[in-house]
Specification:
The protein has 230 residues and is of the alpha+beta class. The chain folds into two domains: 14-37 and 211-229, no CATH class; 59-166 and 182-191, no CATH class. It contains five helices and 13 strands. The strands form three sheets. Strands 4, 5, 6, 7, 8 and 9 form a six-stranded mixed β-sheet that branches. Strands 1, 2, 3, 12 and 13 form a five-stranded antiparallel β-sheet that branches. The longest helix is centred in the first third of the chain and has 11 residues, at 60-70. The mean pLDDT is 90.
Length: 230
């Protein structure tokens, strides 16, 4: 790649740059010797703007394992059909007779159109969760406690919207009870934006970032350049 910007600056050797104090502005002419990562999908990381941590994006197997672990406890019927959500339950026709519960959040005591609806699912498989995410606006995987529904381990996405998984920072998040969502349901026009959902649930939202490292050489030295962007 040839950069044609900054014609007003003369080319500077990398050796000179490496021996100079930052910050400075330079124009260089160099070759790309190496770049990392080698595969493009490995460039996508999860970044927390609060603690500045950078982590790998969990794969589907991790999510599936957490969902399987949440199936152990059956949905608590005392938490079904509240003032702000309607519940539907059934038994899956598999060897374990798995219990599934879906809670549809209401607005003005009425269910919304699927494309505007947030729902919570207990006991679902990865395939079932993705199927619901294609049909409804937002899906939150949950499990029952004695008093309320709660989010799963933050190693799993706390929210799915379309084909996007939203994660929270384990270090900076202080998860609140699921009933905190009722405040959004009570709004005049609930938008179910991920940032708003994260805020009321006490989740510090992680952002997907793109990061790469390039090693540039010009015969006088080698310089590492980092690309980091949202």
């Amino acid at each position: 790649t040839v950069l044609t910007d900054h014609q007003d600056l003369n080319n500077t050797d990398l050796k000179t740059i490496l021996n100079s104090m930052a910050p400075q502005q330079y124009r260089i002419r160099a070759k790309l010797r190496t770049y990392k990562p080698q595969k493009l999908y490995q460039s996508i990381k999860l970044h927390c703007s609060k603690c500045n941590s950078l982590g790998e994006v969990p794969d589907g197997d991790d999510f599936d394992f957490i969902l399987q672990g949440s199936v152990i406890a059956a949905p608590n019927p005392e938490l079904h059909n509240t003032s702000w959500y309607d519940s539907v339950t059934w038994t899956a026709q598999d060897l374990k007779q798995r219990k599934i519960a879906i809670h549809f959040v209401k607005h003005d005591e009425m269910l919304q159109q699927p494309e505007d609806t947030l729902l919570m699912i207990e006991g679902g498989t990865l395939k079932e969760v993705w199927k619901l995410a294609k049909r409804f606006k937002c899906v939150i995987p949950v499990r029952s406690t004695e008093d309320d529904l709660e989010l799963l381990d933050l190693s799993a996405p706390f929210l799915l919207q379309g084909n996007i998984k939203y994660y929270g920072c384990k270090q900076c998040s202080t998860p609140k009870p699921i009933k905190s969502l009722s405040s959004i349901a009570a709004e005049q026009r609930p938008s179910w934006e991920p940032t708003e959902i994260a805020q009321v649930l006490g989740i510090e939202l992680l952002q997907y970032v793109f990061i790469m490292k390039f090693t540039l050489v010009d015969g006088t030295g080698a310089l590492n350049a980092y690309l980091f962007d949202y």
